[in-house]
Amino acid sequence: MHYHEAANFLFDLRRFGVDPGVESVQELLAAVDVSPNEGDGPAYVQVAGTNGKGSTARMVESALREAGLSVGLYTSPHLEHLTERVHVDGREMPRSAVAEFVEAAKPWLVDRAADGAPLTFFEVVTALGIWWFERAGVDVAVLEVGLGGELDATSAVDPIASAVTNVSLEHTGVLGDTVEEIAETKAHVAPVGRPLVTGTEGAALSTVRDVADEVGASGVITVGEDEWIGEGATGTADYAGGDDAASGVHPDVTVAYNGRITHQQAGVSVAAEGWAVDARIPLLGEHQAMNAGIACVLSRQIGDELGVDVGRGALERGLAKADWPGRFEVMSQSPLTVLDGAHNPEACETVTETLSTFEYDDCHLVVAAMHDKDTVAMAAALPDDASVTTCEPVTDRAEDSEVLARTFEDAGYDDVRATGSVANALSMAREDADGDDALLVTGSLYAVAEARATWTRLQVPKRVDSIDEAETVLRDAQVSEPGIWRMRGKADHRVLHTRVQQRQAEYLKQEMLSLDGECSASALRSGGELHDVVLSGTMAQFKRLAEKLQGQPWGLSGLGERSVSSWGSSTARQSATCRGHRIGRRSWAC
């Protein structure tokens, strides 16, 4: 089985709705000979919460690796490729392993679907991650919980350590209508016989304590700021011990955000009885101090369980290396361009607060959202003096851009417009932004992923001088076997290999073929990840393609310009140096 066949099978599972429960995942794991709760396999960690769980999981993974452990990391969603969801020691799961898993699991999954009990995409991909961690023999695997906790697919394992970062209203149709109900399902990730770590406060914390006791956890470790308010407290108070401590005014572990140091780095402090950490982290925002505190407590707890010293040095080095794409990620400083996947009101408030620590003139928002989100409250939480361009990422769950635009107009925004693709919205906002302005892409990680691809997509112009070389290029791009056979004899001159969104791939193919050039796209059918595209033609055809891409609606103008520019530079020079690597005269990466 090829990777594109496996990925297509997995993405097709998205048509099945959410069906909370862990039994199906456990049965699938058994079908592929994996028993995560038995034997000498990896230890598991769960990180649940409304916001911050991905960043926290990444920090834990990084700190444990610095302590010398082999660590798996499972997160969602992916930004560009399915394999991003599963890492072992910092390396993405190989595509060949995805194909191997699907080939083994597919007969069982087909039988289940035929019996009227199909598994969902998230359930199967979670099983994929656990299967790979068991195969890789990691010491510990950190799992970001998907939805809730008690019935989430990641709860197919028994964790040795767990956390609930915070709780606010989300997915009320599934998790409950109140903070207490949502906290109840999330707190069921509590590890039996061990403490649950949490950054929750007030009523949510009261519920977390009750559930932790119910499931047999040994207690709750609270993390918060010095002026944190726990359950039983009636107002803000500095820690003075005694009755204040008993009422929950002071957390067990205190955190402080020491401010932004650079446009990509901030300082945080974490302190508890007997230990402390001061670190610079590549994540901005006061909320990241809380995430760092929870990560430190979890990492120390895991180290104690596994008999490994996770000391101050490992924690500080781990936090310093824990980058997390798409979470207040600064892509440019002129104009200040930020990508943040905030997708609920609380997260939008946080990104607005973090953006306010920068100096800028005007603010330009590129916003998309899923149709099940509280877009009214999200609009109220974002900078109210900004211009807004709404758009739709490639997913069936996306809110209509015109409906979203009306929401912002009703919220009092004066300059609002709607467009189709994320790439086009980003291009329009860039044209409007001056060097001293700020441009924020937010509202959905799907939108962030599509925007981010305009910076990160691979472009590899090269000369291909034989059928064997052409076949290698096409196979690397996941082109189907019939497609390879059709095009391998034609890709014998200038070739451009790039990665774009599905609808961009379709547009590129149509335009290149209209110029009598050649184009093959990967055999992926879904918009679930970037699609490889191989364009082949003469220099004149690439120049004409660049002209045709100018002003088109799918954000591809720069692609044609850069490809022609790259070919031009190759004519002028016999070799090129790109990203610090010397590349031969006939091919290079840019």
What is the tally of helical segments?
Answer: 21
How many structural domains in the coordinates?
3
- The CATH superfamily label of the largest domain reads Mur-like, catalytic domain
Overall 3D shape? globular
Question: What structural class do you assign from the helix and strand content?
Answer: alpha/beta
CATH architecture of the largest domain: 3-Layer(aba) Sandwich
Q: At the first level of CATH, what is the class of the largest domain?
A: Alpha Beta
The helicity comes to: 40-55%
Low-confidence stretches: 232-247, 570-590
- Read across the widest sheet, the strand sequence of neighbours is 4-3-2-5-1-6-7-8-9-10-11
The CATH topology annotation of the largest domain reads as UDP-N-acetylmuramoyl-L-alanine:D-glutamate ligase
Mean pLDDT metric: 85
Strand % is 15-25%
Provide the gyration radius in Å.
25 Å
For the sheet with most strands, the description reads: 11 strands, mixed
N-to-C span? 31 Å
Number of strands: 23
Domain Mur ligase C-terminal: 326-444
Family: Belongs to the folylpolyglutamate synthase family.
Organism: Halolamina pelagica
Keywords: ATP-binding, Ligase, Magnesium, Metal-binding, Nucleotide-binding
Written description of the protein model:
With about 600 residues, this protein is of the alpha/beta class. The protein folds into three domains: about 5-320, Mur-like, catalytic domain (UDP-N-acetylmuramoyl-L-alanine:D-glutamate ligase); about 330-455, Protein-Tyrosine Phosphatase, Chain A; about 455-585, no CATH class. The protein is built from 21 helices and 23 strands. Strand 9 (about 255-260) and strand 10 (about 265-270) form a beta hairpin. Helix 3 crosses helix 11 (about 310-320) and helix 17 packs antiparallel against helix 18.
